[in-house]
UniProtKB/TrEMBL annotation:
Keywords from the UniProt entry: Signal
Lineage: Bacteria, Bacillati, Actinomycetota, Actinomycetes, Pseudonocardiales
Region: Disordered, residue numbers: 23-56
Name this protein carries in UniProt: DUF4352 domain-containing protein
Composition bias, Polar residues: 23-32
Organism, scientific name: Actinophytocola oryzae
């Protein structure tokens, strides 16, 4: 009986020793955090992360996309909406939908050396939706066809521009702005521009 207890204790001790060595030798799948990784994760703040909500802007503020850091010095693209004005000329097409007014959104765009049309197509800047005072976002504000509300040399924003790296672009985008709009959004809702 003493022999059985001794053998049993020996087996338990051996198995415990093996299992603790195996646990020590097992690689863990948990990533190790470092201050460098955390710093990198916090630096890109000009392009909103998913589920964080849009970035609030005022007319004249600078916005950036695919920025390497928190400044606008190393962005694939920067842009601003400088103003929203009434149409400057006649319009040969139909009147805007009821409850809207034909307006021009004036934009300025600067592409950087890392800009690619594939990653940042022009429509991210030039396609708009509106938000009313209740916070309700409406549909696309851009007319479905080419327009002549802006002077021809100033028209921009058909969504099919072939922008190039290291270039500046500026012009007016025609929209049908709802009469109750207090903001417009672009960048698929990433940026909200207060109209007042």
């Amino acid at each position: 009986m003493v022999r059985r207890i001794f053998v049993s204790l020996f087996v338990v001790a051996f198995l415990t020793s093996c299992s603790s060595k195996a646990a020590e030798e097992q690689p863990t799948n948990r990533p190790k955090a470092s201050s460098v990784e955390l710093a990198d994760a916090e630096t890109t703040t000009t392009t909103p992360p998913p589920n964080k909500g849009p970035i609030a802007k005022r007319l004249g503020d600078l916005a950036g996309a695919d920025c390497a850091d928190t400044s606008f010095d190393n962005c694939a693209m920067t842009f601003t909406i400088t103003k929203v004005t009434d149409c400057t000329g006649g319009y040969p097409g139909d009147a805007p939908p009821t409850g809207t007014t034909r307006k021009l959104v004036w934009v300025e765009i600067q592409t950087g050396p890392s800009y690619t049309l594939t990653d940042l197509p022009s429509y991210l800047v030039t396609r708009f939706a509106a938000i009313n005072a209740a916070g309700v976002t409406g549909g696309d504000l851009n007319p479905s066809s080419r327009w002549e509300c802006a002077p021809t040399q100033s028209s921009i924003g058909f969504g099919d521009e072939n922008w190039l790296p290291n270039k500046k672009y500026a012009g007016a985008v025609e929209i049908y702005l709802p009469d109750d709009a207090v903001k417009i959004t672009n960048g698929d809702g990433f940026w909200e521009w207060a109209l007042q």
